[in-house]
Amino acid sequence: MSRKQQLLKRHRRNKRIGLLAALFVLVLAGVFVCWWLPLLLLPLLWVAHEAWFADHLFYSPGQDYAYDFAEPTREAKATLQGGRLQVDATLQGDETLILEVDIRSGWLGRFLDPQIKLLAGAASDVQTFERGARGVRYLNLSGLAEPLQAGTLRLQGRRCRLLGAPRLWITPGIELRHRRVMVIAPHADDAELAAYGLYSQADEAWVVTLTAGEIEAEHYQHMGLGKAEAARLKGRLRAWDSIAVPRWAGVPESRCVQLGYFCLQLSAMQAAPDQAQASREADMADIRPFRRFNPLPLPADADGAPTWSNLLADLRAMLELARPQVLVMPHPTLDPHPDHVCAQAAVLEALKGLSWQPQTLLCYANHLHDNDRWPMGDSGDGVALPPHLEASGAWTPLSLTLDLQVQRDKAMALGMMHDLQPRAPLKRRLRRVLQRWLAGRRPSPYGENEFFRKAVRRHELFWRRDL
Q1: What was the pLDDT predicted at 56?
Q2: Vertex 190: Cα angle to 186 and 195 (nearest 5)
Q3: Model confidence band, residue 15 (pLDDT cutoffs 50, 70, 90)
Q4: Tens digit of each residue's pLDDT (9 = 90 or more) over 394-446
Q5: CB 126 within 8 A of CB 377
Q6: pLDDT digits (tens, 9 = 90+) for 232-251
Q7: Helix 190-201 crosses helix 404-415 at what angle (to 10 degrees)?
C-alpha cells in the first residue's frame, strides 16, 4: 500500500472515531439537556466540518517544513526590518529565490487561510499556507529579483506573523527556451498541469503521454453506456487530448505521442515485465486502439501488448529520436500517484545504456502524499514550496514565472481536456459553497475543477538535477 493510501486509511479511521464520539455526546445532550438540542447541533457540526475540517491534511500544521537544497543552490544573507526584505547579493533576475521563514497563525488564521503578501507594486504576489500554520515555511520569491535587489520588497502577514530571521536560498537560472524539452506525462493533462508554461515557451518541445487514462468513466456511463464501453470512450478522448491540446501551445503534432498503456496498471507491468496487463475497466488487452492518433510508429505497435518491456522499448525509441536536453517527469518521492512513480522509474530504466543522455532532469509533483490542497491559495497566486517534513534527499528547486497571458493560455489548455470538464459531485460543490462563505476561499475564474485553482499560477515549480 502506498504512503498516500496509508495516510488516507488512518485519516478515515480517526474520522470514524471522532464521529462516533460526537454522536455519543449528542445523545447525552439530548437525554440530559434537551431533546431537540442534537437536532440543532448536528447540522451545525456538519457545516463546520465541511467549512473548516474537510481538507485532506495528513500532518499537523504546527510542524516545520524541512528541506535540504543541493548545489548550485546557495544561501545569501537576508534581513527583514519593518517588513522590508534586504539581501546582500547581486541578482541577475532569472534566479529561483526561496525564502525560509517562521510563521505563526493568529486566532483568525485557524479559520481563514493565513497568507504572506509580497508587496512590490505591479509585481506583487500572495502565497497561502495551511490554516493554523506554525513553523518553518518556504516562500517562492522567483520573479521578484528586481524589487528584492532594490530593497523595495515588503512582506506582510495576513492572519499570521513572521518571526525570527529569514534565510534566502538562491539557485542560478538556466537556459530552457533554446533547449530541446521532453515532458513525460503519465496521463493526458499531466504535462499541461505541471509544465505548460515551460513547454509552450521552448523552441523545441515533445510531449509523451504513457497511459490512456481510461478508468473512472462514470460521467460517460450517464450517457447510457456500459462500464467497459464508457471506459473505452474516455480513453479515446484522452488519447486525442494528449495529441491535440499541445498544439494550442505551438507543439507540432509530430512531437506529441500517446503510448496508450492502461491506467493504474504500470506498477503491475513493472512487477512482471513480460506479462501483459489488461485494462481494469475497458475490457481491453491491446493498446493499439489508443495509439491511432500517433504521428509515428513505435516498437510496441507490433503486438500491442501492455507490458513493461514494451513500455521501455517505446521510451527508448522516443528518447533516441528526440534526444532531449531537458527531460521533465514526475518527482520520485513527492508525487505518490502509482502511475507517476512508475513513469519516473520507467524513464530512468529506459535511459540506461542509451547513446544519448539528457543534460538536465526536471521533476514535478501534481499530487502530494499528505496535502490534497497544495498549492494553496487562489488561481494566479505564487506557489510556495510544498510540505516536506523530513529533509531527506537534496534537490535543487527551479521555478518558472508565468505572466498573465501564459496563465490564461494554460487555463484554456486545461479547459480543452475532457477529463477536467465534468461537474464535481454535489457534496463537493456544496462544500465549496460553504468554504467560500465561511472560510473565505474563492473559486477559480477559469473552471470548476480543482486543478484550475491549483495549476494556473504565477509559478511552475520543478526540482532539478543536472546530469
Answers
A1: 86
A2: 125
A3: confident
A4: 889 999 999 999 999 999 999 999 999 999 999 999 999 999 999 999 999 99
A5: yes
A6: 999 999 999 999 999 999 99
A7: 140
Residue 375 C-alpha cell reads as: 498549492
Placement of cell 521510451 in the chain:
315
> Cα(first)–Cα(last) distance of the chain, in Å?
32
The vertex-95 CA angle with 255 and 141, nearest 5°, equals 105
